[in-house]
Amino acid sequence: MIIVRSPLRISLGGGGTDLPSYYRRYGGFLIAAAIDKYIYISVHQTFVPELIIKYSKMERVGSVDQIQHPIIREAMRLLELEGSGLEITSMADIPAGTGLGSSGSFTTALLKALHTYKKQLIHPADLAAQACDIEINRLGEPVGKQDQYIAAFGGLTCFRFNPNDSVEAWPLRISSETLYNLEDNLLLFFTGYSRSAGSILKEQDDRSRQSDKAMIDNLHFVREIGLQSQAALEAGDLREFARLMNVHWQQKKARSGNMSNSDIDRWYDLAIGSGALGGKMIGAGGGGFLMFYTEDKAALRRAMSEAGLREVRFRFDFEGTKVVIS
Questions:
Q1: Which residues does residue 186 pair with via DSSP β-bridges, in sequence order?
Q2: How far apart, in whole angstroms, are the C-alpha atoms of residue 238 and residue 223?
Q3: Poorest-pLDDT segment among 13-17, 101-105, 197-201, 294-298
Q4: Residue 286 above 80 pLDDT?
Q5: First vs last Cα of the chain: how many Å apart?
Q6: What is the rounded (10 degree) CA torsion for 171, 177, 178, 184?
């Protein structure tokens, strides 16, 4: 039995500039943080000739080409696995469609498990690159590279996405005191519904490919917010970081009419009126998790609870995608 876990993530600045339609022309930059909420993949040998795949559905198939789950099918093709007599199962701490990068975490966990099954070591950069190849190139999904890379690396990490498709990664140079304060004062609240990010990301991707000036200018500005957020965090200025979160959220909302709705706007305003210094929707928008920075956690928790939002408490993860059992 092989069990691999891969962390989910929150974005700390610059999200959206990791889509190929943008960074291949202008270069992208963002900061992401892995959190201690995980996707788990297990792989083990069975005594039957079939492939057994368990996720929200169950598949029993005779060959890799018959697998309906596109990521599992393409991962096994990539690693040239026939897979007869294998059972692959996935589990998650947080449901998909909530903006925490579950698809990228799923893909890195699956690839790590399959490499382990083949007794192969793989560097986090190579793991993330393979995951991106599956989702972006083989499956043609309108997604960026943030989720795969932060899942593979873990930690609080800066990423530069270069026009030649190379990716540079380095740890955010943050003091221990700032790290602990950031971890304590960032709160996540579930809006109560999930959504597919595909339509929002496709709109951004299409408009970027068409050189839509408003979209390109928006992403230029968001990239600059990412760089300013890096500077604020590394200087220990968490109030400035919170202010930039607000600016970032307004820019995200301007990208698509589906980014927010009346409920999200109402909850956001309530949070700001209850002590939050800054906040934004995590992920592509339209649902999932709201994240806020506050120095008055009790007041914010009380207000959000009374509004019916559930908090998910978290800590940062510094291990990235890892084998738990082998």
A1: 293
A2: 19
A3: 197-201
A4: no
A5: 6
A6: 110
Q: What is the CA radius of gyration of the chain?
A: 20
Say yes or no to pLDDT of 258 above 80. no
And the tokens for 57?
Answer: 């559905």
B/e letters for 280-311, b = 16+ CB within 10 Å, e = fewer, are: bbbbbbbbbbbbbbbeebeebbebbeeeebee
Average pLDDT on 142-159 reads 97
At residue 211, the pLDDT reads 82
What is the full DSSP assignment across 80-95? T---TTEEEEEEESS-
Assign residue 87 a region: left if phi > 0, alpha if psi is -120 to 50, beta otherwise?
beta
The Cα 180–Cα 139 span in angstroms is 39
Extract the tokens encoding 28. Answer: 């992208």
Q: What is the 8-class DSSP label of residue 9?
A: E
Please say whether the beta carbons of 290 and 271 come within 8 A.
yes
Query: pTM to 2 decimals?
Result: 0.94
What does DSSP assign to residue 20? H
- Single-letter amino acid, residue 115: H
Burial of 99 (0-12, 13-18, 19+ CB in 10 A): buried
CA of residue 286 relative to chain centroid, distance: 15
